[in-house]
Amino acid sequence: MDRLDNAIRPYAWGSPTAIPHLLGTEPTGEPQAEMWMGAHPGAPSRTDRGTLVEVIDADPEKELGPAAVAKFGPRLPFLLKILAAGAPLSLQVHPDLEQAKEGYTDEERRGIPVDAPHRNYKDANHKPELICALTEFDGLCGFRDPLAAAGLLDDLGVDSLKPYVDLLHAHPEDAALREVLTAILTADPEEMSRTVAEAAAACTRLGGAYAPYADIAHHYPGDPGVIAAMLLNHVRLQPGEALYLGAGVPHAYLNGLGVEIMANSDNVLRCGLTPKHVDVPELLRIVRFRPSDPGVLRPEASPDGEELYETPIDEFRLSRYVLPEAGSAHDLTRATPQILLCTAGSVRAGEHDLTPGRSVFVPAGEKAEVSGTGTLFRATVVA
Fold first, then answer.
1. 2-3 and 307-309: which strand pairing?
2. Which amino acids are annotated catalytic?
3. What is the pLDDT of residues 60-93, one digit of tens each?
């Protein structure tokens, strides 16, 4: 197996201290938002044999296994991250596989450069993802019941929100949610900025359930995404709890440290809380306008100590091991590629000693015995 040297992405919303604290390093004063583990061409992990992209390209079947190559092609189909949100991320949705293929083909046909700021589809893949909390972790996930959203907005006492409150009482629910989100994102910018300012002041005054939206407005003053965010469920994960985010589900991460895994894609349609391009017509095509419970996941334990986070897709499979005794060993050998990530304690993986934030890549079929006292996340695929 290969010890990984992983890139840290300095996005503006990142916490300057959470990842350094996990790694036991000194903060630089700059935001450290994500640490990427995998073979994404934008920031591939490095090994003693070269980048993980180069290692896999040299012999895909040896590194990934014949079954994974047959199912997903000659590339690692997932990207594992440590994510440290110090401020809200953009409100966003991801396309399903068919929508991604259609969107990518269309933008290629129209000759839109892949790095153009108004391009939506960087690739032809979908981007389901899972976030597992390492600390308390706040986020937004899926639409509230429209009547609950109407009550939340109405209690702010902001006159310019009354039309949205009335729309949310209409039927059917999916049409009501679609009409309100469309109205929010297409409103006159100056009028919306004033509405957001009034709503933010009310959220600050009321506190409690409104506190997350006051904080969002602090980071994104005047942004229509502040009002759109109030249509969504607010979720606070405890360490070890997770959220699965499928296609079309609007979501945003607000604050906290977590382990994130996703299909290897960059396709994001933004709804707000961002200075980046918001393509409203395409966004409305992708969003699934139905109220839903956020569906907090807790791992299901097996007799061998593996705690699995069940998801409905095959590009990734995330589980964890909480190792209580230094003397006990677990054989994690699989016929599929794996990344093993330590998040607490000290874990021995093959010949490598892993401390928090350190990881290894295990080629398909490679012996993978682990021991120690700590927490180990295991990322692989279903093939």
1. unpaired
2. 270
3. 999 999 999 999 999 999 999 999 999 999 999 9
